[in-house]
Amino acid sequence: MRVLVIEDEKRLAATLGDLLEMDGYNADLCYDGESGLDNALTGIYDVILLDMMLPKKDGLTVLRELRQAGNATPVLMLTARSELSDRVAGLDSGADYYLTKPFEPRELLACVRALTRRQPELRTPDSLQFGDLKLDKSTFTLVCGSRSVRLSRKEFDMMELLILNCSQVLTKETLLVKIWGYESDAEDNNVEVYISFLRKKLEHLHSTVRIRTIRMVGYCLEQTAS
Question: What span, in angstroms and rounded, lies between the C-alpha atoms of 104 and 19?
Answer without folding.
Answer: 11
